[in-house]
Structure formats: C-alpha cells, structure tokens
Amino acid sequence: MMAPDIRLSKIGQISMRAKDLARATAFYRDRLGLPYLFSAGPLAFFDCGGTRLMLGLAESPEFDHSGSVLYFNVPDIEAAYTAMQQRGVVFIREPHLIAKMPDHELWMAFFRDSEENTLAIMAERR
Fold it and tell me: What is the secondary structure of 69-98 as a DSSP string?
C-alpha cells in the first residue's frame, strides 16, 4: 500500500510561552490589537488572520523559554510602528530595510512582548 502524498502548508496554531498569562493577554489584546478568541485554563487564544496564537504557561521547565519570532505583516510599517509605540510597545530596532527583491523591498522592525519574546512587524514595499 502506497503512503498518501501529504504536504504541510498552512500553520493552524502557534504557541508562545508566558510567565504571567494576564499580563501577556493584555499585551497581545490591548497593545498589539490582536482579536482575542477565548481562554481555557492556563491558555489564551488570539486570531492572527486565520492562524491561531496560543499563549500559555510552561507545562514543565523544558518548555520555559522564549518562543519563535512571530512576524506580523502590516501594510504601512511606519504607521504601524508609530501606532504601536503610542500604545506602549517598546521597539528594539526601528523600521529598516532587510532586503531588496526584484519587485519589492522587505522592511522590518523588532520589539519584545511583555514576556520577553521577540516579535516583528514587516512590510513589503513595491
């Protein structure tokens, strides 16, 4: 019997650790403006354009570390940068050019969440 040809393509959920769930929930909801979906025990869920973000307390010491970098697409990086600063987001680095592609430029700005995870906003300029 042949194995089915299964290909992964869409991320359904991303998990980020939190040390203080109430503080992290407030940061993602109020400062980043992500739509809050629901909470279940020590977990909080947000919608990131169809991909679910799960914030949770570490189940055990081996899971208590910073998570992967999340890159949020924004249409206007300078406007997003300014608006987020006004909501109390502290950036590590201001918007800057990452790469010149044949049909666009890739710009990013990095910041940390309330739990010290690194995040970024990114824009593709034509």
Answer: PEEEE-S-HHHHHHHHHHTTPPEEEEEEEE
